[in-house]
Every structure is written in structure tokens, then in C-alpha cells.
Design brief:
This protein has about 100 residues and is an alpha+beta fold. The protein has a single domain, classed as Kinase associated domain 1, KA1 (TATA-Binding Protein, 2-Layer Sandwich), CATH 3.30.310.80. The protein is about 25% helix and about 35% strand. Strand 2 and strand 3 form a beta hairpin. The radius of gyration is 13 Å and the shape is globular. It comes from Pontixanthobacter aquaemixtae.
Length: about 100
């Protein structure tokens, strides 16, 4: 599954905001029973691993000049929830790019 979220920020600012707020990702997964780990193999790429409801999902977030791109490998058994997941990624990804209050 591929989800692109447009932005108009410098790459460095996108990276800073994602690094500062990546701990919030698990809060946006319905059910409250998810664990999320992230890593930064490069300045423009965040790896993400989600464990929820007995499923392990791995993916990458690539930071590009005008968009961030979430690539998540969904197992075939979860294909039916792809529209729900992609919608949540769009909504929550946009929120993570917003300036935190006080900035």
C-alpha cells in the first residue's frame, strides 16, 4: 500500500517534525493495542514497524521535496481494510506535519 501526503515544507523541517512526533503514531491506531517502532536509516527515510491485533506490518516513510510517501506491506488477509488504513494514514500523517502548538 502506498500513500502520498503532500507538503510545502523544507525536507529538514519535515524530518524534524516526524522525528519529534513519531512516538505519537501508536496513539492513532484504533483499539489502543498497537506497538510501533521507528528508525531512521537515512535523513530522508524512516522505517516503521507496527504490531497490532497479532499482525506485524513493516514499512517505510520517504521524505521527498513536495510529499511524504508511506509504503506499508499489508498481508493479503488485511487487504479489505486498505481503504480505512490509507485514510487514517493521510489524516494522521497530515496532523504530524502540522506545526506543534507554540511554534
Amino acid at each position: 500500500m502506498r500513500v502520498a501526503i503532500p507538503h510545502d515544507l523544507p525536507r529538514e523541517e519535515v524530518t524534524r517534525r516526524l522525528k519529534e512526533r513519531s512516538h505519537e503514531i501508536a496513539d492513532h491506531i484504533p483499539g489502543g493495542m498497537a506497538s510501533v517502532t521507528t528508525d531512521w536509516p537515512s535523513d530522508d527515510r524512516m522505517s516503521i514497524n507496527v504490531n497490532a491485533m497479532g499482525n506485524d506490518l513493516a514499512g517505510m516513510v520517504d521524505i521527498e521535496d513536495r510529499q511524504i510517501v508511506f509504503e506499508i506491506a499489508l498481508p493479503p488477509a488485511l487487504g479489505f481494510v486498505e481503504p480505512i488504513i490509507s485514510g487514517a494514514i493521510r489524516k494522521q500523517g497530515q496532523k504530524m506535519l502540522e506545526a506543534p502548538s507554540g511554534d
